Amino acid sequence: xxxxxxxxxxxxxxxxxxxxxxxxxxxxxxxxxxxxxxxxxxxxxxxxxxxxxxxxxxxxxxxxxxxxxxxxxxxxxxxxxxxxxxxxxxxxxxxxxxxxxxxxxxxxxxxxxxxxxxxxxxxxxxxxxxxxxxxxxxxxxxxxxxxxxxxxxxxxxxxxxxxxxxxxxxxxxxxxxxxxxxxxxxxxxxxxxxxxxxxxxxxxxxxxxxxxxxxxxxxxxxxxxxxxxxxxxxxx
Length: 236
What we know:
Radius of gyration: 20 Å
CATH class of the largest domain: Alpha Beta
Order of helices and strands: EHHEEEEEEEEHEHEEEEHEEEH
Number of strands: 17
CATH superfamily of the largest domain: Pseudouridine synthase I, catalytic domain, N-terminal subdomain
Strand content: 25-35%
Number of helices: 6
Structural class: alpha+beta
Shape: elongated
CATH topology of the largest domain: Alpha-Beta Plaits
């Protein structure tokens, strides 16, 4: 196999995200064949070189990819100092090492991807890759063409104008909204800018992955075809 950047290998093996892996390297926590490596551009052969983090050998990890239906009123985190329910409360011990791809608010439900593939996580969450996310937004009846055009065309928020997306009215008081940015509480802030209350918010797709009829609190493994599409990115 060809040599690869060290931080990329660490991310793919589920040690950490690529950015976090870079921090490990510069902090002197990573060694290759017994030698501490601090250079971020270091290239190694993943099939031949022995990589350790904090003295522990990093074996090739079996990559796991799950679609999870996050219920209302739990946080997208492994632990919570306040003792609130977390997404880990719904996963068996074998999947406790997985991390969420992006986040959903405490009072938002719907599709959340979980994996130990740090490289794919970076790809999906980085804004430059423009992974589309579709939400169902329940609000007051009376939303018209003007509001839909504003939601789709871009809305000025305190951190800048949102990128163009897609919005359509499914029925009175129910909007389907597709965006590709991942700003904090973006959908709620977009609705708030139009003085439209959010009664309920549910994410139903991320890229090629759809929630469909997966019950709240349950998960399923992604199919090989779904994983392939995710890795290919937009347009796949």
